[in-house]
């Protein structure tokens, strides 16, 4: 891609927005009021706003390799705190996608350098669910099921945080687990049972 073309695209985008609404950027600069925090994968094919059909200001977005929520990552923990406590979002979404390169990389028997500690979080998901996953013969099906289980475990990691527990009690915040199917463009709701998970883990993870 020619980097100069990006700036040409930007100018064309500005003109189009102003053609439709001459106060577009004036309104955009007034602030944001998102109702959703979206935690997704950094994959260049999976853009949060496009797949949800939302506009700027409607969703607060955090992306990293394989949509992880490890408690040792100050970046994602800070995003959750800011979105839940200060922006007061009412929904937290963890969204993975099938054919995720991060998930596949985690299952390689290879030294991947600085990626090792990050991908170990996905290997831990496999370890927790290995009895189910080891029964799946087809590798692609196994990886895609691991994508789903990884989303589930990252939702649990979200639920373990004090800000989310407090917001659930005070305003009924909800956590959702989704998967994006690149082959069809569809969003799949894994129907994470937030209330049941919270009840099961609170004896150990109650923080608020």
What's the short story on this structure?
The protein is of the alpha/beta class. It is 52% helix and 14% strand.
Describe the structure.
With 208 residues, the protein is of the alpha/beta class. Helices cover 52% and strands 14% of the residues. The chain has helices spanning 3-20, 24-28, 48-52, 74-86, 101-106, 115-128, 130-133, 139-159, 162-171, 194-205; strands at residues 36-41, 59-64, 91-97, 174-180, 187-189. Strands 2-1-3-4-5 form a 5-stranded mixed beta sheet. Strand 1 (36-41), helix 3 and strand 2 (59-64) form a beta-alpha-beta unit. The N and C termini lie far apart (48 Å).
Q: Number of helical runs? A: 10
> Which segments are poorly predicted (pLDDT under 50) over 5 or more consecutive residues?
none
**CATH-defined fold name:** Beta-carbonic Anhydrase, Chain A
SS strand fraction: 5-15%
The CATH architecture name reads 3-Layer(aba) Sandwich
Helix percentage range: 40-55%
Shape: globular
Over all CA atoms, what is the radius of gyration? 19 Å
Structural class: alpha/beta
Q: How do the SSEs run, as a string of H and E?
A: HHEHEHEHHHHHEEH
**Average pLDDT:** 94
Q: How many distinct beta strands? A: 5
Number of domains: 1
Largest β sheet strand count, sense and barrel closure: 5 strands, mixed
Key words describing this protein structure:
208 residues; alpha/beta; Beta-carbonic Anhydrase, Chain A; 5-stranded mixed beta sheet; 10 helices; globular
């Amino acid at each position: 891609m020619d980097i100069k073309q990006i700036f040409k695209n930007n100018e064309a985008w500005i003109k189009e927005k102003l053609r439709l609404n001459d106060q577009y950027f004036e309104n955009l600069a007034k602030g944001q009021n998102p109702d959703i925090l979206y935690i997704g994968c950094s994959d260049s094919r999976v853009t949060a706003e496009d797949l949800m059909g939302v506009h700027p200001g409607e969703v607060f977005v955090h992306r990293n390799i394989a949509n992880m929520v490890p408690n040792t990552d100050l970046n994602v923990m800070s995003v959750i705190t800011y979105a839940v406590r200060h922006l007061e979002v009412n929904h937290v979404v963890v969204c993975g996608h099938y054919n995720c390169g991060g998930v596949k990389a985690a299952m390689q028997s290879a030294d991947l350098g600085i990626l090792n500690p990050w991908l170990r979080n996905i290997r831990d998901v496999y370890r927790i669910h290995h009895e189910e996953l080891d029964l799946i013969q087809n590798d692609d099906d196994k990886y895609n099921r691991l994508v789903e289980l990884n989303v589930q475990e990252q939702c649990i990691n979200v639920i373990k945080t004090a800000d989310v527990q407090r917001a659930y009690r005070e305003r009924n915040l909800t956590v959702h687990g989704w998967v994006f199917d690149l082959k069809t463009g569809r969003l799949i709701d894994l129907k994470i049972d937030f209330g049941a998970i919270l009840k099961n883990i609170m004896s150990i993870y109650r923080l608020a």
